[in-house]
Automatic annotation (TrEMBL):
GO terms for biological process: carbohydrate catabolic process. Keywords: Glycosidase, Hydrolase. It is an enzyme of class 3 (hydrolase). This is BglA_5 protein. It comes from Weissella cibaria. The gene is bglA_5. InterPro entries: GH, GH_1_N_CS, Glyco_hydro_1. Its EC number is 3.2.1.86. The keyword Transmembrane does not apply. GO terms for molecular function: 6-phospho-beta-glucosidase activity.
Length: 485
């Protein structure tokens, strides 16, 4: 039994353009940084190729063909009773190269039609401006977000879409999971996140300090771009609700040992400065201290600081999938500039999914409370949460009790966070309500959907859509405002 939530609670789901739309060259679309990512797996990382190489498998080129199937797909979301649906605008449909003098009308028209279709079903669009899909041309010609000029290019893109969809979209967010890149370390595995966030690619010679300096510079420009977009958005329509977006894996210390506690706290700070700048419009003390005592001095002007302060967000959008447990690797003081002082360890109190992501519903309530402690009363929208799993079709049906168990347990924690803890959570949009290409691995078989899509990792299959058991479960949850879990 769940707890009935407020009538205006935004129930629904979320996807991103590059993982769903496919049609990577249709309607004048340019090449994005997602279009040159090969397919990988749980054990094989995705490769970032120099342009599109013949003969390689690029799963984002086909996605689930949402570009052509969105009408039928949205009808299924409507059938589940969705109040809101989050997707991103593919920047490259609007500005194929990122620095084009004029926007691409065919791309603009596509999103006009898409948002109209959502409204037809009574579904509120929730729109991400930049979800791991910046124009590739901005990487080859500008070096991605390492170049200050990209701020204005992004802000211009934001202005164009804010004006165009002024009366169709109210809820916006700027950069998806902007803080993922803070994970950059000696381990090249995490370089992938700096690519998806910032379009930066490191060579083998890059030291940890080089990587951190590049990530912080790019992150700063992204934050300034976000703050400027927030200001312009509010000028265009004062009713716009514009947020930042971060992943909030709950962080735990491996033990109450003081060094572990400090390591855990520093790991959190190393990630949360992005949220601080979004919400408070200023860098936190430990990061200012880091800039002073290390050689890492990002280009931050007084004008930038004024912009950050003037462009604070209206709400925070978050994704939550798992928790992470860390310990100190020595008795030394863990520091924000020493990721090597912190090690991720297994938490014996939680199970993991097939991709080793810790399944921890209470961690979501913990993360929500932590956010509310840091930014009291700031509205929070959960824009991603879900269970990636292998599904099997048996006699034309997909029975997915594992997914229902995961979602049920997480929604129950959200309800407690709202009702027992008084946290202003305004919506729950689960990730991938329809199966899409995984961002991390490029697989189709890592499925999150209530709706099964008959496509495999090579993009082969009928593309047919099938309602899973979880489809009917979620429909009932929405119909009862979360009471019937
Ligand atoms: C988030 C991203 O990191 O996690 C999504 O915003 C992504 O784009 C989701 O799909 C789940 O990750 P994955 O790797 O299972 O697709």
């Amino acid at each position: 039994m769940g707890i009935k939530l407020q009538d205006d609670f935004l129930w629904g789901g979320a996807i991103a353009a590059h993982q769903a739309e496919g049609a990577w060259q249709a309607g004048g679309k340019g090449v994005s940084i997602a279009d040159i990512l090969t397919a990988g797996s749980h054990t094989e990382p995705r490769q970032i190729t120099d342009g599109v190489v013949d003969g390689l498998n690029y799963p984002n080129h086909h996605g689930i063909d949402f570009y052509h199937t969105y009408k039928e797909d949205l009808a299924l979301m409507g059938e589940m009773g969705f109040k809101a649906f989050r997707t991103s605008i593919a920047w490259t449909r609007i500005f194929p190269n990122g620095d084009d003098a004029t926007p691409n009308e065919e791309g603009l028209q596509f999103y006009d039609d898409l948002f109209d279709e959502m409204h037809k079903h009574g579904i509120e669009p929730v729109v991400t401006l930049n979800h791991f899909e910046m124009p590739y041309h901005l990487v080859t010609e500008y070096g991605g977000w390492s170049d200050r000029r990209v701020i204005d290019l992004f802000v211009n893109y934001a202005k164009v879409v804010f004006e165009r969809y002024r009366d169709k979209v109210t809820y916006w967010m700027t950069h998806n999971e902007i803080s993922n890149q803070a994970a950059v370390s000696d381990n090249p595995f995490f370089d992938f996140m700096v690519w998806t966030n910032s379009g930066l690619k490191f060579d083998d010679k890059a030291t940890l300090a080089d990587k951190q300096a590049a990530m912080m510079q790019a992150g700063h420009y992204e934050l300034v771009a976000s703050a400027k977009a927030v200001q312009i958005g509010h000028e265009i329509n004062p009713d716009f609700v514009i947020g930042g977006m971060v992943n909030v894996a709950a962080l735990y210390p491996a033990s109450p040992k003081p060094a572990d506690m400090l390591a855990f706290q520093k790991a959190r700070q190393a990630r949360d400065w992005f949220t601080d700048v979004h919400v408070r419009g200023a860098y936190p003390a430990e990061l200012e201290a880091f800039f002073k005592r290390t050689g890492i001095r990002p280009d931050i002007t007084d004008e930038d600081r004024a912009d950050l302060l003037a462009g604070t967000v209206d709400y925070m959008a978050i994704s939550y999938y798992n928790s992470t447990t860390v310990r100190a690797t020595s008795e030394q003081d863990a520091e924000i500039d020493h990721p090597a002082d912190v090690e991720v360890v297994k938490n014996d109190f939680v199970k993991v999914n097939d991709w080793d992501w810790a399944v921890d519903p209470q961690g979501l309530r913990y993360a929500l409370n932590e956010l509310n402690d840091m930014y009291p009363y700031l509205p929070i929208m959960i824009v991603e949460n879900g269970f990636g799993a292998y599904d099997e079709i048996v006699d034309g049906q997909v029975h997915d009790p594992y997914r229902i168990d995961y979602l049920k347990a997480h929604v129950a924690e959200v309800e407690k966070a709202i009702v027992n803890d008084g946290i202003p959570v305004i919506g729950y949009l689960s990730w991938g309500p329809i199966d899409i290409v995984s961002a991390g691995t490029g697989e189709m078989k890592k499925r999150y959907g209530y709706i099964y899509v008959d496509l495999d990792d090579m993009g082969e299959g009928s593309g047919e859509r099938l309602r899973k058991d979880s489809f009917y479960w979620y429909k009932q949850v929405i119909a009862t405002q979360g009471e019937d879990l």
